[in-house]
């Protein structure tokens, strides 16, 4: 232990398995589990649920010329306030991340502004320098667009095949936006669901299965239906990510042309939403696909509105409300928001055991009503308005308090690089 480091103790924590003990944190790690000694700061946790903090492996932090939607400061404050200490930024920025230089510039911008740890994914386009981005520190590749979306053009089958092959040779992880999209008039949530159908999602997954060579590491982003999950699992094609909006919202409960609920892949019917929950045990990761667009940008006719829903701050709170109401376990939340994303991405996991990364979120045992005015995102709205959430009181990052009683505190966020990173001498 570095003796000059601050020592923080989480007192009387209920550890999974039933033991109640103190967790001592110093030098960014858990230094001891059991009765604690001298501490600079003590948090009494007997009335709280203490979880390893989340990794949200799918966020769009925007910034640059899209800073009116979100920037690194507002987006990472939003993450912390939702119990997330690592965000993985998607490369469909303007300009897109296609070279090592652009990726490093993005990381340096984040280093100046971010309040939580972050990683940056490499863009997968026909002209992208995949190897250069791996060496520059890309965490993963994609979301790789098998179907078009906001700020992302679809790759052809041949281009997808070639990219997956190159990424495999770089020992990289391909993250996929799996949709086959039909042409047609897209003026309601129902037509959006039809044009970007369940069958299209399944078809995209099947194409990936056909073109991925053995040994490719594939992760499917925001899978929206039970049938696709069954296909991926039965054929063992890749890991599965599901968003809170597909679990908690359906277009049946929205006004037919509500642009705020327009997202890719689309919200499905209530029937499909319930079927998605039946697959809960097969889902590897819950990630938000935090895609902030402003109220003004959403206030246009449906067919012109950008797709995307903000959600990094409400993701774990919505899940913790399910824990509170006895529908899922806290172990489920830890696995799907922290341990599994860490394993899939190769990030050191946060956890209770000595030596582990000391990132924790302390949740009260009460639900509150989700209100946009209380959220940090610049988007300024949430589709979960009025729904129940359990928000953390305190968030610890690398053993330091990074969020407490609704205030974000600047600590020392780090850029977490992917396994292909080669430092420049
Ligand atoms: O709805 C979406 N919005 N889906 C995506 O895949 C991209 C995202 C965005 O960047 O706005």
Shape: globular
Please name the CATH topology of the largest domain.
TIM Barrel
Class derived from helix and strand content:
alpha/beta
What is the CATH top level name of the largest domain? Alpha Beta
Overall CATH architecture of the largest domain: Alpha-Beta Barrel
- Poorly predicted residue ranges: none
Mean pLDDT, all residues: 97
Describe the structure.
- Its cofactor is Zn(2+).
- It holds the Pfam family Amidohydro_1.
- InterPro entries: Amidohydro-rel (IPR006680), DHOase/Allantoinase_Hydrolase (IPR050138), Dihydroorotase_CS (IPR002195), Metal-dep_hydrolase_composite (IPR011059), Metal_Hydrolase (IPR032466).
- The chain has twelve helices and 19 strands.
- With 425 residues, the protein is an alpha/beta fold.
- The chain folds into two domains: 87 residues, Urease, subunit C, domain 1, CATH 2.30.40.10; 294 residues, TIM Barrel (Alpha-Beta Barrel), CATH 3.20.20.140.
- It is globular, with a radius of gyration of 21 Å.
- A five-stranded antiparallel sheet has the order 5-14-17-18-19, with helices on one face. A five-stranded parallel sheet has the order 9-10-11-12-13.
- The chain binds (4S)-2,6-dioxohexahydropyrimidine-4-carboxylic acid.
- The site of (4S)-2,6-dioxohexahydropyrimidine-4-carboxylic acid (DOR) has 12 residues, from loops.
